[in-house]
Amino acid sequence: MHPSTLPLTACILLLPLSVLAQEHAAHEHGHGELNLALDGQQLLIELHAPAADLVGFEHAPRTTQEQQQQALALQHLQQADRLFVLPAAARCQLQQQQVHDHADAQDEHTAEAAHANDSAHEHEHEEDHQHSDIRAEYSFVCQQPEQLNSLTLTLFSHYPTLQKLSLQAILPGVPDRNELSASQPTVTW
Ligand SMILES: [Zn+2]
Fold first, then answer.
1. Where are the beta strands (DSSP E) in 40-114?
2. Which residues neighbour 4 within 8 Å (Cβ) at sequence distance 6 or greater?
3. Within 13 Å of residue 162, how many CA atoms lie on the same side as its CB?
4. How much distance in Å is there from the Cα of 27 to the middle of ligand 1?
5. Domain boundaries, the chain
6. Alpha-carbon distance 25 to 62, whole Å?
7. Is the pLDDT of residue 65 over 50?
8. ∠160-138-79 over CA atoms, to 5°?
9. Collapsing DSSP states into helix, strand and coil, what is residue 18?
10. What pLDDT score does 88 carry?
11. What spacing in Å lies between the alpha carbon of 149 and ligand 1's midpoint?
12. 108 falls in which pLDDT band (50, 70, 90)?
């Protein structure tokens, strides 16, 4: 007689379900982030968005056409004046910009993570599950930082699938959390 055998087996069978139910912070297509920080004369703008919205696809380019499309998209992201408008009176000059395409570095890792999250991730990636983000950083030096009291995003007209950017700003007078979109492209402070 082994009366304890059955309950023990039941316990072991129940375990894996709870262990496997992990939260994964998948990115949401159409939704990106914009971070703003002003330190003295230096204004930093960081744009972070799904490659699906900024390039048009998220996998590593497979054809010459995709390579060209990606190269052009990355080139466009280096043109800060195509993306943002700052008050002329602040006399801001772009000093540095960097565009990071995470597709190459994160392909394998991201594909693994996305598989575990198929049901929560509702956009179309039928042939694969690769996701990648693009992060672009822009550093301006403003001669009259006290005149810097608004930022208008002109980027929405170039990226029609990008619906909104969550704004996080380290600037006096700007609410901590804000959302910018094609219909609300300006933040003032
Ligand atoms: Zn994606």
1. 42-50, 84-85, 92-101
2. none
3. 32
4. 6
5. 29-188
6. 27
7. yes
8. 50
9. helix
10. 97
11. 34
12. very low
